[in-house]
Amino acid sequence: MILTIILFAFSAVILYFIALAPKEKRFEIAGNSQGTYLSQTMFNILRFQNPDYSDAYFEQSVPFNKRGEYAKGFQLLDKAVELEPLKHLGLPRLA
Question: Would you state the torsion angle of the CA atoms of residues 34, 51, 14, 58, taken in this order, to the nearest 10 degrees?
Fold first, then answer.
């Protein structure tokens, strides 16, 4: 009985951090463990819940490009650029 309660509480905490915490907090957690299965899953959930959140696409693309998986990496990077070109292309901001 106690073990069941502990497992349920642990599962609830994990679910909160993967899918329910504020997107900025989840982005920070996923970015700090970049390239791991957990990180990629968190970015997938972030992109599903916030399809216009360009930072999630950009950050998720990094490990793919580092590993030489350019097709997937640039697909994600292109989406980030499509959503916010000035931010992700490094172009100077116009006043």
Answer: 10
In 3D space, the residue among 24, 21, 13 whose CA is nearest the CA of residue 59 turns out to be: 24
Q: How far apart are CA 64 and CA 72, in angstroms?
A: 7
pTM for the structure as a whole: 0.79
Question: Is residue 94 pLDDT above 80, yes or no?
Answer: no
Alpha-carbon span 63 to 38, nearest angstrom = 13
DSSP calls for the chain: -HHHHHHHHHHHHHHIIIIIS-HHHHHHHHHHTTTSHHHHHHHHHHHHH-TT-HHHHHHHHHHHHHTT-HHHHHHHHHHHHHH-HHHHHTPPPP-
Sign of the torsion formed by the C-alpha atoms of 17, 22, 28 and 30:
positive
Q: Which of 69, 22, 27 is nearest to 44 (CA)?
A: 27
**pLDDT tens per residue across span 75-86:** 999 999 999 998
